[in-house]
Amino acid sequence: MATKVKLRPRRKKGEKKNQVTQERLAFQQCSSFTRKLRAHSRDFAELPRLGPANRSFQLLSTTAMSSSSSLFKQLGLAGTGSPLSGRHLLLILLGAGFLAFTVFVVHPNEFRIQSFFAGSCGRPRAEAAGVPHAAATEVAQAPDDDVRVLIGIQTLPAKYERRHLLRTVYSLQVREHPSLAGRVDVRFVFCNVTSPDDAVFVALEIMRYGDIIVLDCAENMDNGKTYTFFSTVARAFNATTTGAAAGRPRYDYVMKADDDTYLRLPALAASLRGAAREDAYYGLQMPCDRENFYPFPPFMSGMGYALSWDLVAWVAASDLARREQDGPEDMWTGRWFNVAGRARNRYDQAPRMYNYKGASPDSCFRHGFVPDTIAVHMLKDAARWAETLAYFNATAGLPRAGQLYHLPPPAPAGRP
């Protein structure tokens, strides 16, 4: 059975030219209409600050009263012979009002009036340069998950040179990574200052830098200094934040660190960002040699370990911690949590936290530098500090300004 084919009637002479002329006229009318709408969107931007509903109503009223008749005439929608009645015009106005309500009240962020009218009629619009829409949406909806850390570096009042070095190192890290400012705070911690000379110099440091905590205790390393640090911090910084993060503790973590530990703050913050904010115990877990020390109770190495804020508050209120202060401070901190059944979220950062290797053999807690390092411990002298800082390119930002810096050429970059 043959298939019937319906032939298109032949176009009359001149009909194609008339059609092109009509399409061009319609395009010009549409473009004129768009320019009118853009003008009204600018008028809307200049209106006084009103509530969303009042602003939408004022825009709709202004548009309807000032230009509805002229726009309808330009589009051929009004006048004698127009297919639109007054009821049709009313429905169009109501639809426009609903659109304005949706744009400015329901979805003010998803629909931007400027971009809504930015395109031209009947023509494809190129994508705007910049972040893709999907990525922009993810940024806008990203929670405030930036971690806040207080790092207490335990040191001695007379160790001015070491504090000066650490201030320089960490301030340069913050300069290179501005997002750390206000998120990671470094403080130097020691007990009561007994030397009159040290009291003068420490007072000047406090006045100049404001980064020192003087605990009310006799100077020591393993007789309660760490307990006094955590309990003092819990009382001094117990206020919560305000604004969008209302009710959140000022710090998510408090870290105790030694002054012979080099911390890479960006790596530390990135690592903590993915950890739990409660009942969390973070560091290099010891003993890492399970064969020789099992079942020795686990603890985090004193080189540097962090506690979530709730554990800091628990230490300050715990009778167990207050009674058992005398002993190796890192082991005793782990003992508090082991006995009390606390710190269920434990984060072992081996091999990213380790001791300086030097000439010693490799072990589970001591090895050579690695690019994704968080902390290097046992930097007991200037030579070890210089080697470590050179490996991690700490001087990469040194300006090369003419003849001002007569320094030897930098050592080859240690990091890949």
> Can you identify the CATH superfamily of the largest domain?
Spore Coat Polysaccharide Biosynthesis Protein SpsA, Chain A
Oligomer: single chain
By DSSP, the count of extended strands is 12
Strand content: 5-15%
Largest sheet: 7 strands, mixed
Protein described:
Helix 6 (160-176) links the parallel strand 1 (149-154) and strand 2 (184-190). The N and C termini lie far apart (76 Å). Helix content is 44%, strand content 11%. It is built from 14 helices and twelve strands. The longest helix has 32 residues, at 15-46.
Highlighted features:
single chain; 416 residues; alpha/beta; Spore Coat Polysaccharide Biosynthesis Protein SpsA, Chain A; 2 domains; seven-stranded mixed beta sheet; three-stranded mixed beta sheet; 12 strands; 44% helix; 11% strand
Write a brief structural summary.
By secondary structure, this protein is of the alpha/beta class.
Outline the fold blueprint.
Layout: H1 15-46, H2 52-74, H3 86-106, H4 113-116, H5 133-141, E1 149-154, H6 160-176, E2 184-190, H7 196-209, E3 212-214, H8 225-236, E4 253-258, E5 262-263, H9 265-273, E6 280-283, E7 285-286, H10 290-293, E8 299-300, E9 304-308, H11 309-317, H12 319-323, H13 329-340, E10 345-348, E11 353-355, E12 375-377, H14 382-391
Parallel strand pairs: 1-2, 1-4, 2-3, 6-10, 11-12
Antiparallel strand pairs: 4-9, 5-12, 6-9, 7-8
Helix pairs in contact: 1-2, 2-3, 8-11
